Amino acid sequence: MTSALPGSPLPPRAAATRIDDEELLRAVLNCLPLRVFVKDRDSTYLFFNRKMAEDLGVAPEALIGRNDLDFFPAELALRYREDDRRVREEKLTLSYEEPFRTHDGEGWILTTKTPWYTADGEVGGILGFFADITPHKRAEARYGTIIQTSRDAFVIVGSEGELCDVNEACCQLVGYTRDELLGMHLSEIEGQQGPAEIAENMQRLSRDGGGFFETQWRHRDGHRIAVEVSVRLLDDGGGMRFFAFVHDISARQRIELALAHKTAIYAMLSRINGAIVKLTDRQALFTEVCDIATRYGGFVLAWIGEEAKGRSENGRVHVLACSGDAKHQSYLETLVIHTSPELATGRGATGTAIREGRPVIMEHLQTRDESEPWHAEMRRCGLRSSMALPIGGGSFRGAFTVYAEEESYFDEDVVALLEEVAGDISFALAKMADTEQRLYAESQVALYAQVFGNSSDGMIITDAANNIVAVNASFVDITGYTAAEVLGQNPRLLKSDRHGRQFYQDLWATLSAQGAWQGELWNRRKNGDIYPAWVTINLVRDTAGRVSNHFAVFSDLMQKKAAEELHRLKRFDALTGLPNQLMMEDRVGEAIIHATQHDRHVGVLFINLDHFHMVNDLFGHVAGDQVLNQSARRLLDVVGAQGTVSRFSGDFFVVALPDLNAASAINPVASALLASIAEPYAVSGQLINLSARIGIAVFPNDGKDFATLMKNADSALLNAKVGGKNSFRFFTKRMNEHSQRLLTIGDDLRRAVAERLLTLHYQPQVDLGSGKVVGVEALIRIDHPQRGLIPPGEFISVAEENGMIFTLGEWALDEACRQRRRWLDAGFDDFVVAVNVSAHQMARGDLPEIVARTLAGHRLDGRYLELEFTESSLMRNVGKSLSLMQQFHAMGVRLSIDDFGTGYSSLAYLKQFPLDKLKIDQSFVRHLDEQGSDALIVQAILALSHALGLTSIAEGVESLAQQNILRELGCCEMQGYLFSRPLTAAAVESLLPRRT
User: Fold this and answer.
1) How many whole angstroms separate alpha carbon 305 and alpha carbon 282?
2) What is the mean pLDDT of residues 559-567?
3) Where does the EAL domain lie (predicted)?
4) Across-strand partners of 123?
5) What mean pLDDT is predicted for residues 580-585?
6) How many CB atoms lie within 10 A of CB 357?
């Protein structure tokens, strides 16, 4: 060589120094364990170090100036030269493994080629070196055999956490193919560590040379696998790598977990048995059992529930005791469980266990159909499996339910032990029930003894031969005989001789046949006095049915009547028999307590008869007493069972109305009371007219006790006296205004009925498809001589308050049927007349009879009449509503729900009603052509009506846009100002269809 070796140029020096540097460089390269060579731009060898020459078996000088075609087969030599070209032209570094034969035999080398540069920065040729990686390849071969034959998963992990090799067992463990795993990062299958944590742990493992630990791997489908990992550093010349055996320990952990569960349940069973021995109170036992289950049994939540016994409860299960942390106990706060399988809340583990009397296990709780009502709360609380065990004893019927956060907690051994726990609890309940029954029986005996000894009634016990064996203290007090004087005697010693022989024969015949006799009997005291007694005699039989004793109870009617009269005089008015002030104060006090507890109202009405003194002055006090008695009877007739009527003093009466929803409920009662007093009185052969005024105070607004309410009612009464005859006033201004409005409109209503000022107008109902009139709705009006037509919105609510709704409703029904009969006779055939029905009319219950009578009276077939009900009126009493509507349906009357969508209808009940039509409320139709949710609501109502096979009709349609939208949504009929306003009977005839 005539110049220095290629690479970084040597600094300019003297020739001798340059030669010395070149020799030093050659010496260094010859000492390297690597095989080093240098090529020029034409791939001609410029230099070989000694190690490479030895591998080729030639002297280094013999290689200079030659190329790869001189040493290797043409195909291989050309590939080498192509690699050289890429390195030169693309200025890159290439590395690759390849087999190589040396004088020692076959092996593997890692070849690396990189460009070298001249002093002017141009590529001068190729600098190459290769390393013998035969040991590494042989180690890989050995590892490959181990990997592929191992039953455990085996992986080789690179320094960056990449998977370099895996065996088939690893693929099966995590669910990926080998090709998918190679190149993946370890964190993608390691279930607990991210890339940063894995890198940190690899550094530690490299320092320690390996390690052993347990962790979790993640399967392709997402489930986690418990594994035991043994890691060693792999030192084979290929850089820092690790090989690891990965052993699946899921089965072992399951066994260990099952053993832990079993051990915990054993501990739980032992402690529960201790509690059963120690505790005698059922509630204390339930609390202890639940606490033990969570503290020692390994459960996150435990509770005991009992099935409610009342029919109205529908088998509701009530929580009696529970245990768990705050999060898990919160699950029970809104828990609704029943035992009825017809309810979605009755198909879970607890309801089924109680209903069928068997343990019920539910795993995968958060996805099971049976537990669907509770999924959201189960996910929030992390509950994944449960078991409910029926428990019972005596009258108790319930379940013990436990929860775990594992999906599969309840194996065969755990289930067996829990069933033993439930059996022990049931045994304890049965023992408690027996003890309770025994203690109850003992207490009853003690009670009977106490009653026998302390009863105010006389008592006698005789044996089978009717000889006295026991008497009580009251017997001694009533008869005057001591116990010693009568024991062993026959009760005939009390005979008064007031009853003949036949009387006693009949008594004993009845007693023998029926086992009891009751009636009035005259007896004689020891001093000879005769007195009436009310006597009850019973036969007592033994287990064989033979008479063993006679038991008689009697009371002294003379003493009783005297005591009752004294009591009556203390609490009732002597003249009218009404409760007096003392009794009224007690009644109002009780009503106030109830109203406070249930957020209700109590009304106190202070009533004064106007100018009553004139009755006494003109007709005398006897006539005055007659008027007071008649007034008392009238007030009682109005108030009935809904309240209490009291005579306060003189011509003042007090009425108490308890348990009111609102103060407005007093208005119709006050009006009725005034009307009753206003009826003429018959006094001394003459008719006289009286009036009254009423002052009203309401709990809690006007007072919290009887005295305050009476004071304020008296103040309101003074105000009423200013207002004229037959008036009432509330203590509060707002109530007065309402009462005045009630009186004014009430007077208008009564006048309208009396003077026949009521009229019906009819609004057409139109088929949206054909445009034909298919019905008319009858709408009541008052034809007021001064105010003109008054619409129903102004007086219907008042009519419902003062009770006139029944008169108005019957008149509207009769008038609509009378008009439909006229139209039918005139040839108007194919349409119905719709009449609105009030909730008050339905509540009274006689509407079917009224409808049947009205149809018959006008010779009208039921198919020409349609009754409209509101949702709320139907849902007030579903059972009664269903019965009424079935009666209407049997008459052929068509039925519709008015204002649908504004109330609340249970679909489960709605589908039971024999309906024909749903009427969409105008509040949804009004903004139907605007942006909003009304169109969606109408669409939902129409879908419901179609599903139930009902005709749909929209009310309040006022624009073509609304009509078009309704038609597009599939609505059947409409009514509203777009087609016609309500019209008189004569005016509407031009729109009605005639018989063809």
Assistant:
1) 12
2) 58
3) 742-996
4) 117
5) 85
6) 11
Q: pLDDT band at residue 811, thresholds of 50, 70 and 90? A: very high
β-pairing verdict for 917-920 and 894-900: parallel
Long-range contacts of the stretch 449-458 (C-beta < 8 A, 24+): 455/553, 456/555, 457/553, 457/554, 457/555, 458/533, 458/553, 458/554, 458/555, 458/556
Distance of CA 729 to the CA centre of its chain: 45
**Which overall architecture, per CATH, does domain 15-132 show?**
2-Layer Sandwich (3.30)
Nearest residue to 474 via CA among 547, 533, 550: 533
pLDDT tens digits along 877-926: 778 888 899 999 999 999 998 877 655 455 656 778 899 999 988 888 88
Please tell me what DSSP assigns to residue 852: H
Per-residue confidence at 14, pLDDT binned at 50, 70, 90?
very low
Q: How far is CA 362 from CA 323, 340, 341, 409, in A?
A: 20, 18, 16, 10
Question: What number does CATH give the domain 756-991?
Answer: 3.20.20.450
Using one digit for the tens of pLDDT, what is the confidence trace for 826-882? 999 889 999 999 888 888 888 999 999 999 999 999 999 999 998 777 777 778 888
Express each pLDDT in 104-161 by its tens digit. Answer: 667 778 888 899 888 888 889 999 988 777 766 665 666 556 666 677 888 888 888 8
Q: Give dist(CA 307, CA 988) in Å, integer.
A: 61
**HEC profile for 871-882?**
HHHHHHCHHHHH
CA distance 842 to 130: 105
Mean pLDDT for the chain?
84
Give the burial class of 150: count Cβ atoms within 10 A of its Cβ; 0-12 exposed, 13-18 middle, 19 or more buried: middle
Q: Two tokens at 182?
A: 């190679």
* Joined tokens for residue 945: 């009506």
Is residue 657 classed as helix, strand or coil in its secondary structure?
strand
pLDDT of amino acid 15? 40
What pLDDT, on a 0 to 100 scale, did the predictor assign at position 210? Answer: 81
Topology classification of domain 254-412: Beta-Lactamase (3.30.450)
pLDDT tens-digit series, residues 344-376: 999 999 999 999 999 999 999 998 999 999 999
User: In CATH, what class is 572-731?
Assistant: alpha beta
Phi and psi at 671, nearest 5°, equal: -60, -40
Q: Within the chain, which residue ranges are assigned CATH 3.30.70.270? A: 572-731
- Strand order in 530-541's β-sheet? 468-471, 458-463, 547-556, 530-541, 516-524
Task: Give start and end residues of each alpha helix (H) in 455-604.
Answer: 473-479, 483-486, 501-514, 557-571, 581-598
DSSP secondary structure string, 973-987? EEESTTT---B-HHH
3 state DSSP class of 533? strand
Q: Are 399 and 391 in contact (CB under 8 A)?
A: yes
pLDDT of residue 699: 94
Q: Are 344 and 373 in contact (CB under 8 A)?
A: yes
Ranges of CATH 3.20.20.450 domains, the chain? 756-991
**41 vs 44: CA distance, rounded Å:** 7
- Give the model's pLDDT for residue 722: 62
Measured distance CA(605)–CA(92) in Å, rounded:
110
Residues of the chain with CATH 3.30.450.20: 15-132, 136-248, 455-562
Which residues of the chain are in CATH 3.30.450.40 domains? Answer: 254-412
For 455-562, give the CATH class.
Answer: alpha beta
**Mean pLDDT: which of 193-197, 252-256, 280-284, 802-806 is highest?**
280-284
In this structure, whether the domain defined by 136-248 belongs to CATH 3.30.450.20 is answered with yes
Residue 444, both tokens: 């009853």
- What tokens were used for 18? 């340059």
Write down the pLDDT at residue 212: 84
Question: What does residue 582 show for φ and ψ, rounded to 5 degrees?
Answer: -60, -45
